[in-house]
Design goal:
The structure is a single chain. This protein is of the alpha+beta class and 310 residues long. It has 3 domains: 97 residues, no CATH class; 94 residues, no CATH class; 98 residues, no CATH class. The chain has 11 helices and 11 strands. Strands 1, 2, 3, 4, 5, 6, 7, 8, 9, 10 and 11 form an 11-stranded mixed β-sheet that branches. A hairpin with a 5-residue loop joins strand 9 and strand 10. The longest helix has 25 residues. The radius of gyration is 24 Å and the shape is elongated.
Length: 310
């Protein structure tokens, strides 16, 4: 149970010493607070209060403050919901990554061959309209209106450590997230969905000795040895009744990366759900349904690569 003591100590430092240092840097405190509702007790109230109840009211947060030894009214807490407090919480969140507690390494031999296994992903969170000037959304149902916060994260699967965290406008694409370009140790493996698909970035990692695995975009162009350049649809169409296929290929037209293409047919129930999703997304965006996307719904196309060994 040593890790519990380690986490407790790190959290205590983060929510006291680190928070007060961040508050001083931001000039957060304008005057001494007789109620002892200082930056650290404010942050502790919000963290512990919302950890216990993600939808806690200001009244319930005031009760949490009382448990921390601070007598403060719900109205006083409500007045602390300012951009200054948001900036302070942002600083504390960023600092928390420096004290991240890694879990025990995973025991899967197939992953142990890599120096790290980094997973990239993102999510968009809708925000109140009052934050329009700070976090702009896309103005559609996907980004929850005109105000949204995109959170991009990079997680090391081997240790459980959070290696990167981006908080940007909800309208920003995954391609624009800083973690997209974040360097990785040689011998690492990078896993990300199609939102992060970028052959230029893959080439950069390839040259840095980093492995990557990604699904291919429907319009990707590939060259199979002994064949002319083809689309993914042309490749799977030529498979006939085969359920799987793999081969070394060259991916892309401009960057031309050497990789390996793995193709697997999915069950019909899965293909049906995918086709329905393709059609729903096309109707939602008021554009024609892509025949290629519908045809490729019954296939998984994955391209892993080995880094250069020069």
């Amino acid at each position: 149970m040593e890790i519990i003591a380690h986490v407790s100590q790190a959290m205590q430092c983060l929510l006291t010493t680190t928070t007060e240092a961040a508050a001083a840097q931001l000039a957060f405190v304008k005057r001494a607070d007789r109620a002892k509702f200082n930056p650290s007790t404010l942050v502790q109230t919000l963290v512990y209060g919302w950890l216990a109840n993600p939808t806690a009211s200001v009244g319930q947060l005031a009760q949490m403050a009382a448990r921390l030894g601070v007598d403060v009214s719900p109205q006083a807490i409500d007045r602390r919901f300012t951009m200054a407090t948001a900036s302070l919480l942002h600083q504390v969140l960023t600092a928390s990554m420096e004290a991240a507690i890694a879990a025990d390494p995973v025991a899967l031999p197939i992953l142990q061959r890599f120096t790290s296994v980094r997973i990239h992903d993102s999510t968009t969170i809708g925000l109140p309209d009052a934050l329009t000037a700070h976090y702009r959304g896309c103005g559609n149902e996907r980004s929850y209106g005109t105000v949204g916060l995109k959170c991009g994260a990079q997680l090391d699967l081997l240790t459980g450590a959070l290696c990167g965290l981006d908080l940007v406008d909800g309208r920003a694409s995954d391609q624009a997230l800083p973690i997209q370009q974040a360097p990785m140790p040689a011998g690492s493996l990078r896993l990300a969905d199609l939102g992060f698909y970028n052959l230029g970035v893959f080439k950069m990692f390839d040259q840095a000795g980093v492995y990557w695995i990604s699904r291919l975009q429907n319009h990707s162009r590939i060259r199979v040895p002994g064949h002319k350049e083809q689309s993914i649809l042309e490749v799977v169409t030529a498979l006939g009744d085969a359920d799987q296929w793999e081969s070394p290929v060259v991916v892309g037209q401009q960057h031309r990366l050497q990789a390996r293409l793995l193709i697997q047919r999915v069950p019909e129930s899965v293909a049906a759900r995918r086709r329905a999703r393709v059609e729903a997304e096309a109707h939602g965006k008021r554009r024609p349904v892509s025949r290629d996307a519908v045809a490729l719904a019954e296939w998984v196309t994955v391209s892993p690569t080995s880094p250069r060994t020069s």
